[in-house]
From TrEMBL:
SUPFAM superfamilies: Metallo-hydrolase/oxidoreductase (SSF56281). This is Glyoxylase, beta-lactamase superfamily II. Residues 13-195 form the Metallo-beta-lactamase domain. Keywords: Hydrolase, Metal-binding, Zinc.
């Protein structure tokens, strides 16, 4: 069984996740840890739960989702995985952060790109990686079929969807991606979002104003 732990971090109130299983291995998804107090909190969580981090796996590479990447790489000597089509966002992160009024340190390039049709694995757990562009060109979501959980990044929010006005974004691509690649999964699938509270696919299917 996977355990999903959420940390709400940085000035953009981004959701960073630590996903672990009974083996004690864990992965960081979209680590946005920015302030020192946030970095202390995550280090304590890892040590108190005796977890072994094995990788950083991002849904996409907007600056608020990668602010903690370099700190975790150094702390745990782990690789940073993301989709190739979001590599340019890593390079643009300082510039993009400045546009939002924040300073951030440079993030080194992605270590490994997701491979087509290859699942994301750690411990005894496995996620299907589904490419859902539109919010960013290399945006992926992670689907745990066994437990019915979806890590959706900024594709889908409670009652909303990700913005599509940033470089590489496209509204119609995002809408069709959600409808064709996510809404065919079971209604009871629990959705962990990149910002805000959790939801389910069934709830969004029936009530999300962008998708009904
Ligand atoms: Zn984003």
């Amino acid at each position: 069984m996977i355990k999903v732990k959420k940390f709400v971090v940085n000035p953009l109130q981004e959701n960073s996740y630590v996903i672990s299983d009974e083996t004690g291995q864990c992965i960081f998804v979209d680590p946005g840890f920015y302030f020192d107090v946030e970095k202390e909190e995550i280090k304590n969580y890892i040590s108190e739960n005796r977890l072994t981090p094995v990788m950083i796996a991002n849904t996409h590479c907007h600056f608020d989702h990668i602010m903690g990447v370099e700190f975790l790489r150094e702390e745990y000597s782990i690789p940073f995985y993301a989709h190739e089509e979001d590599a340019f966002w890593v390079e643009k992160s300082i510039e993009q952060a400045e546009m939002f009024g924040f300073e951030m340190k440079p993030v080194n390039p992605i270590d490994s790109f997701y491979a087509d049709n290859k699942p994301l694995k750690f411990g005894d757990s496995e996620f299907k990686i589904i490419h859902v562009p539109g919010h960013s060109p290399g945006h992926v979501v992670f689907y745990a079929e066994n437990s019915g959980e979806l890590i959706a990044g900024d594709v889908l929010f409670y009652g909303s969807i990700g913005r599509t006005d940033l470089p590489g974004g496209d509204y119609n691509t995002l809408i069709s991606g959600i409808k064709n690649k996510l809404f065919n999964l079971p209604d009871e699938t629990k959705v962990y979002c990149g910002h805000g509270p959790e939801t389910t696919l069934g709830f969004e299917k029936s009530s999300n104003p962008f998708l009904t």
